[in-house]
Amino acid sequence: MNENIQFENNKELEAVILGLPEYQKKEVWIRGKDQTYEAESHVAIIEKNSDSNPIAILSKKYKLIQHREAFIPFINMCRAMGINVKGTITKSEGKVFLRAIFMDKRARVVVDGEELYTGVLLGNSVDGTMGLFMESFAFRSVCSNGMLLGKTLVARVYKIHAGNAEILKEQYQKFSEQIIENSPRLSDIIKRAISENIQESVINQALYGAGFGKNHVKKLLEKCQQLDIKNKWDLYNVITNWLTHELEVKWGAEKWHQSNATRLLTEPLSILVENGAAIEKTIKEKKQV
User: Fold this and answer.
1) Neighbours of 50 (CB within 10 A)
2) How many CB atoms lie within 10 A of CB 65?
3) Of 80, 171, 202, 269, which shows the fewest CB atoms inside 10 Å?
């Protein structure tokens, strides 16, 4: 079960990070037929000062990066840049995700009177399921929806190589500066999405074309029927509202859905509908067999 902790400023974020558990490597003992012996190549990852079970069994060569070690340099970067952040930290087993919104006029985007702020998503694990990473993120003030933007604002998603704290801070700053610099690009993307009107009859095809599966398309269509969906931006917001406030899935599934939503936002509607129509046809043909 995920645990979400909200923070309103840098000081609150620092307090949350300092309160995150730390982990350590412990030897793994194997019970043989005649004796118990220590594993030569693997260790257990366990929470410090806890009698809980290991969260993972990993190679002795695994580099354990504590959540504090991963995230404190980000706070130091924000202070150095004079930026205050707010957002959410999500704890999910051995993983922690930090969604931070830059509360700075340089990161502010206004489209048709609606206010958005860009920011970052940081993720770190101590169980070997993923490396430390950083992606562009945005937040719609009107509905509190999160927008995972992947490569939309920055050329690539950063796989962070944690060295010392100062190097990590520099990596965070370089990426954050690019996000802030490219924030106006988000306004252009949204305006294009608003300009692309969508007919109710092709919404399902657009969803299939963006990558959503049959069950999720059915669920999203039910939500669309309760609303007046006029354009691609309206449809995108139905999806992000569902992802942010209703759907509880593991990180891999959430990232997959967010990537699909971003595809719907950024790709031309005609291509989405064309691809979706082909997928829908295949689904119907399989059903008839």
Assistant:
1) 11
2) 17
3) 80
Find the helix packing angle between 203-210 and 214-224, rounded to 10°.
140
Q: Tokens for 73?
A: 């340099």
CB atoms within 10 A of CB 237: 21
Contact 247, 257 (CB under 8 A): yes
- Between CA 175 and CA 29 the distance in angstroms is 43
Q: Is the pLDDT of residue 156 over 60?
A: no
Mean pLDDT over the full length of the chain = 86
**In angstroms, rounded to a whole number, what is the distance separating the alpha carbons of residues 231 and 189?**
13
Q: Where are the beta strands (DSSP E) in the chain?
A: 3-7, 23-31, 36-47, 56-59, 85-92, 95-102, 108-111, 114-125, 133-140, 145-150, 158-159
pTM summary value = 0.83
Determine contact, residues 114/104, Cβ cutoff 8 Å.
Answer: no
Q: pLDDT tens for residues 207-226?
A: 999 999 999 999 999 999 98
The CA-based angle 195-233-2, given to 5 degrees, is 165
Backbone dihedral angles phi then psi of residue 188, each to the nearest 5 degrees: -65, -40
Q: Are residues 184 and 105 in contact, defined by beta-carbon separation less than 8 angstroms?
A: no
